[in-house]
Specification:
With 258 residues, the chain is of the alpha/beta class. It contains 10 helices and 11 strands. The strands form 2 sheets. A 9-stranded mixed beta sheet has the order 1-2-6-5-4-3-7-8-9, sandwiched between helices. The protein has a two-stranded antiparallel ribbon with strand order 10-11. Helix 1 (46-61) runs parallel beside helix 2 and helix 4 (128-141) packs across helix 5. The chain is globular and about 60 Å long.
């Protein structure tokens, strides 16, 4: 059964109305860490999946609580990348319901080792408006908002509107033209900043890394759209494996992340 949060959470003063009641399952100590909110599409590209997971992991290694909405796609990947003990999931329903069902095991793990929050009492089923309410809480908790992929008309872009009203910095994952139109538009309008190097970005929090962060050199190398010959010379058979897995495509002798 969920419990009611009785302590005042300073970050939530940025919301249009302070959430009362607010329910939780898990460890409220995660609220006392630095926090970063990560949101994005429910159908991310492989490139976005890799980026989101690596970013969440790098932040968690520095003692940051990663906040997201427990939805499919980017949300779930952010929670998994951070690890259950380093993440805060915000639900759009009562906490006796694990929604979406596909993320049930993930949510249960976060309840046991991390923190799950909701503005809705047990028994409440998610509706269209409750997702909007959930999004505002996700944004309010984080020091900054990171959007790793988003279409123009999406819940992630409505989260951006909350972040702008709250005066929070917004960061995005760089995408090619014609992809992730929402985040590309934010960059074009100067409303967001790009994250070009994950470890450099994560290091802005200035905490000591708990352990060495595995760096996938192949992923970073392919971000620069190298030639097939250059990739083959440096990584050998890994190039063919990545192509078979759909991680990259090779067009006109150029390697591109999908």
């Amino acid at each position: 059964m969920s419990q009611k949060v009785t302590a005042h959470i300073r970050e939530l003063e940025a919301m249009k109305k302070y959430p009362d009641p607010l329910f939780y399952k898990g460890d409220l100590a995660l609220l006392h860490r630095p926090k970063v909110s990560i949101v994005g599409t429910r159908s991310p590209s492989v490139y976005t999946q890799n980026f989101t997971y690596t970013l969440a992991k790098a932040l968690a290694k520095r003692g940051v609580s990663v906040v997201s909405g427990a939805a499919m796609g980017v949300d779930a990947i952010a929670h998994k990348g951070a690890g259950a003990e380093n993440t805060i999931a915000v639900a759009a329903n009562g906490l006796d319901i694990r929604y979406p069902a596909v993320n049930r095991r993930l949510i249960e793990t976060i309840e046991a080792r991390g923190l799950v929050l909701s503005q809705f009492d047990d028994g409440f089923k998610a509706t269209g408006w409750s997702f909007v309410v959930r999004n505002e809480l996700v944004v309010a908790l984080g020091e900054i908002l990171v959007v790793t992929e988003a279409d123009m008309d999406s819940g992630s872009m409505r989260s951006v509107e909350y972040a702008l009203k709250m005066g929070k910095e917004i960061y995005v994952c760089p995408h090619r033209l014609g992809e992730s139109q929402g985040t590309n538009t934010l960059l074009a309008e100067g409303k967001a900043k790009p994250i070009y190097e994950i470890e450099t970005f994560a290091s802005r929090f200035g905490r000591k890394v708990k352990s060495e962060i595995p760096r996938d050199e192949f992923f970073y190398f392919c971000q620069s759209s190298p030639t097939f010959d250059a990739a083959l010379e440096r990584f050998g058979g890994r190039v063919y494996e990545a192509e078979l897995e759909g991680v990259i495509t090779i067009q006109n002798g150029i390697v591109r992340l999908e």
